[in-house]
Amino acid sequence: MSIYDAENNTLTDLRDNQVYRTVTIGSQIWMAENLNLKYNKGSAKSYCYNDSIKYCNNYGRLYTKSAAMDSAAVYSNTSKNCGDENINNCTLKKNARGICPENWHIPDSTEWRTLLSYVEGKINLMSSPPWDESCDVGNDVYNFSVLPGGNKSMYGTYANMGNMGAEGFWFSTIHARIVNFGCYASDVLFQSVGRGYAYPVRCVKDN
Fold first, then answer.
1. Average pLDDT rounded to a whole number, residues 179-196
2. How many CB atoms lie within 10 A of CB 178?
3. 187 or 48, which is more confident?
4. Environment class of residue 207 by beta-carbon count within 10 Å: exposed (0-12), middle (13-18) or buried (19+)?
């Protein structure tokens, strides 16, 4: 269960009672913070950057593809088997919930592109500092608050946190794909990633 408070722009995830800011941009309603729900089901795992809870508190958790999509179907079957481990048996449904709270879902590429088109550029979604001052510092005019939260690799290493950082969010697809707010790229990148990487999750509200 989850509780969305449109008046106060908050989402309460009743699975762990965490409260997230939300923001309405155009016709879409998004979480304005990264998801921070702990998930550990076999190879589907979530992590705090550098294994430190303080980073989870500030940046949310980093999720493997299998965790982000809830491939084990702990919360729903809308993306069952759609992780890295068994995609040949995956039937991805529209508005795949993945690890998101009830009535929210992992955005697909069309939803990301709709958002980016509406706001006319990634810097309008990015926070100001702590992004590195040598790249295009965001102004966050929509209060979407993208922060450089880093990632984790299959080799157990963490990278791209903080001032020189980048933020990559999973979007729903059978294969491993992220939308990457790279510090030095002129716009966001829709790109493939290797197996075993972990990235943040943002959720969008069901229509």
1. 85
2. 23
3. 48
4. exposed
